[in-house]
Write a structure and sequence with these properties.
This protein is of the alpha+beta class and 691 residues long. The chain has helices at 4-11, 15-29, 33-48, 92-100, 117-125, 159-211, 215-230, 270-275, 298-306, 340-438, 444-452, 455-487, 499-509, 511-514, 539-562, 566-571, 624-627, 647-658; strands spanning 52-58, 67-74, 85-86, 105-107, 130-138, 141-150, 234-240, 246-253, 286-288, 311-319, 322-331, 495-497, 524-528, 532-533, 535-537, 575-583, 610-617, 662-667, 673-680, 686-687.
């Protein structure tokens, strides 16, 4: 006997259409297939007043069963069958073909069913007495079945019920089609998102390459980004060595896997060594889904097992046309199917790495060339400064030598004639004495003239005048000799000289600057010379060093005195102290913190190996920021036109490069300055010179 609800369907009342409207509304509002099916089967079972309404999902051929109940609503005491599978697929082709063309099964009595035995037995296990089956399609594909069943009694199915269920099934098919379209849209969105992520990763890598030349940092950050993008277990950068062995220089590895960087000996892949990079030299990538099913040699598999890899992508890193290394992505947890876009992503990153490496190598070459050019420029500046100073000193030496020569000729003439004049004067004075003795009463005119010229005083003073003239001429001869010693034009090669003579010659040249001048007081000179051996050196160049240092000391003292009052000058007079010593212990070692002491090119003197000259002043001192640069070529603190910045630079080169010694500046602001000259020698002959 029909129920009231089934009668309502047969009579076309509004209740079935309300159910249909709710189903349509759900389809439009929801894409949750499980909820949609569950709500629909519940409404249908209640509307039709049947024992079971279910959705049976058909599986593809690679599944073991034909299908499974994925949504169900049952009336007690019928047992639920949600999740039940129909395992026999022997009849699937026939049934699927029937349902594919829209066929339905209307079976009032299951015992009279024409269904295949397995299908029939499955329904009997579900206690089915009457069975109505309508196919559900997704586009042109048979997706599943809508089952309406009576389990307690047989039931004749009315055409109106069948038509109503067809209508419901058609809307469910629309939902399936909409879901498929949504799935395709989501897949496309996912692919677009993945493509966007790949593009961002590439863009980020390119930007990093342009911003930074730090290859190690670039490798570290990019391998981490690529590993996260691929969801791989490890991404690493492998670098070849000249013998085509190699090792990992950077990597990003998931937790739980052993890091490779720094933990592996050099990897010697015989194939890569024999072929010098193999396929990777030809810019070919390699993707392996399963290392055990690709035909790898056993030794290669063992190597990959050491790397914990089960699947991998390897692409070359080409710096220009040179195979620099490899970029590898590894799946360690098991085999993995690598998609084409994943291989393409790794290949593009590898290509960008190659650009970065090539760019870094070019930068290093440019940096090296810049350093070489800088060194060449520095050498040229030093050579220029040496040339300028050498020409300057050569001109000065020639001038001094010329002046000394021109002075020496008349002085020698005067000095040579002074002896004769002295003899003549002595003879004339003796003659006068003879006249006085033998002619005691001279003529009045003679007596008057004798008194007028003060002959007694003349006889006493004339020898003194001649003696003082001789002393003056000898002094001039000494000055000329000092000038000749300073110029040393005849001593271009190394010779053994007395350094004290060079200092004295220099002081003679600078004597006029030591005297008081205007409102500036004189500069007191203090000499503390020790007994020194003759020193094997370039004499003229050493004199040049003494001249530069002493001139700078005088300049500093003059500048300070310009700002002092006469009372201050008298209270604290300026002085320069020159001392020398023969070093016989380690005392010659300069302060370890000094920039110019104990350097490889300027070793500290060893015991008994050198001469030390100290030139000190009580001037204003040198600030630290200036002191650190005073030996740089062309550096000067003097006003424009007052200094070239070459003197101390030349002096440093002469002592360090030409004599193997050292030049050290020790100074504190307001405490004066000391220049320490060290010249390594071997003891030759000890000479003394009074201060």
């Amino acid at each position: 006997m029909k129920s009231e609800r089934r009668t309502a369907i047969a009579q076309g009342t509004t209740e079935p259409y309300k159910t249909l409207s709710r189903a349509i509304a759900r389809i439009r509002e929801s894409l949750d297939l499980e909820c949609l099916f569950q709500a629909t089967v519940t409404d249908l079972r209640q509307l039709l007043d049947v024992d079971r309404v279910a959705v049976f999902r058909l599986w593809p051929e690679d599944k073991g069963s034909w299908g499974q109940i994925i949504a169900e609503d049952v009336r007690s005491p019928v047992e639920a069958a949600l999740g039940a599978e129909l395992g026999d697929r022997s009849f699937a082709d026939d049934c699927n073909t029937y349902y594919q063309i829209g066929g339905i099964h209307v079976i009032p009595d299951i015992s009279q069913s024409p269904l295949p035995p397995s299908y029939h037995d499955f329904l009997r296990r579900l206690q089915v007495k009457s069975h109505l089956c309508i196919p559900l399609h997704q586009q042109d594909t048979l997706w599943g079945l809508l089952w309406v069943q009576q389990c307690q009694t047989e039931c004749p199915w009315e055409p109106s019920e069948i038509e109503f269920l067809r209508l419901i099934a058609s809307h469910l098919c629309l939902a399936l089609e909409r879901l498929e379209e949504q799935g395709k849209f989501q897949a496309q969105t996912s692919q677009l998102g993945m493509a966007a992520r790949r593009e961002r990763a590439l863009s980020t890598t390119i930007q990093k390459i342009r911003r930074s030349l730090d290859i190690h940092t670039l490798f570290q950050t990019t391998t981490q980004e690529v590993r996260q993008l691929l969801d791989a277990d490890r991404v690493g950068v492998y670098r070849f060595k000249p013998d085509w062995s190699g090792n990992f220089v950077a990597e990003s590895v998931s937790p739980g896997w052993n890091p490779l960087v720094g933990n592996l000996p050099d990897i010697a892949d015989t194939h890569l060594q024999e072929t010098q990079g193999g396929r990777y030299r030809e810019n070919q990538a390699l993707a392996v889904n399963d290392i055990y099913n690709v035909g790898h040699a056993q030794c290669h598999i063992e190597l990959l097992e050491k790397l914990q890899a089960k699947a991998y992508i390897i692409v070359p890193i080409l710096a220009g046309e040179t195979l620099w290394g490899l970029l590898a992505a590894y799946q360690n947890s098991g085999p993995r199917h690598w998609y084409e876009y994943e291989v393409d992503l790794v290949s593009q990153i590898g290509a960008q790495f190659g650009v970065a490496v090539h760019q870094s190598e070019l930068f290093e070459q440019l940096k090296h060339q810049k350093e070489e050019l800088s060194l060449t420029l520095q050498n040229l500046q030093q050579a220029q400064s040496q040339l300028v100073q050498s020409e300057k000193m050569a001109s000065l030496g020639q001038l001094v030598a010329g002046v000394a020569h021109e002075i020496n000729n008349p002085v020698n003439f005067i000095y040579g004639n002074l002896t004769h004049i002295t003899d003549y004067a002595r003879d004339l004075l003796e003659l006068v004495e003879q006249y006085q003795e033998y002619y005691p009463n001279p003529h009045e005119a003679i007596q008057a003239f004798s008194e007028e010229i003060e002959s007694d005083f003349l006889k006493e003073d004339l020898p003194k005048i001649l003696s003082s003239m001789k002393v003056g001429v000898e002094r001039i001869r000494g000055i000329v000799l000092s000038l000749r010693n300073f110029s040393r034009l005849d001593q271009a090669e190394k010779k053994r000289v007395n350094l004290h003579e060079g200092i004295e010659s220099t002081l003679l040249i600078l004597q006029h600057r030591l005297k008081s001048k205007g409102d500036r007081g004189s500069i007191h000179l203090i000499k503390e010379y020790a007994e020194l051996p003759l020193v094997d050196c370039y004499a003229a160049q050493m004199n040049q060093v003494f001249m530069n240092i002493l001139s700078n000391a005088i300049d500093a003292l003059e500048m300070r005195d310009r700002d002092r009052t006469p009372e201050q000058i008298r209270a604290n007079p300026s002085w320069i102290k020159i001392s020398s010593e023969w070093v016989e212990d380690d005392a010659s070692s300069t302060s370890p913190g000094d920039r110019y002491s104990n350097s490889p090119e300027n070793p500290a003197l060893t015991k008994g190996s050198g001469v030390v000259i100290r030139i000190c002043d009580n001037g204003p001192g040198i600030p630290e920021e200036v002191r650190s640069r005073i030996f740089d070529p062309f550096f000067t603190t003097k006003p424009i036109g007052s200094g070239t910045g070459l003197g101390l630079s030349i002096s440093y080169q002469i002592l360090v490069e030409k004599h193997g010694g050292s030049l050290t500046c020790i100074s504190q602001l307001g405490q004066g300055t000391e220049f320490r000259l060290e010249i390594p020698i071997q003891p030759i002959q000890m000479t003394s010179q009074a201060a």
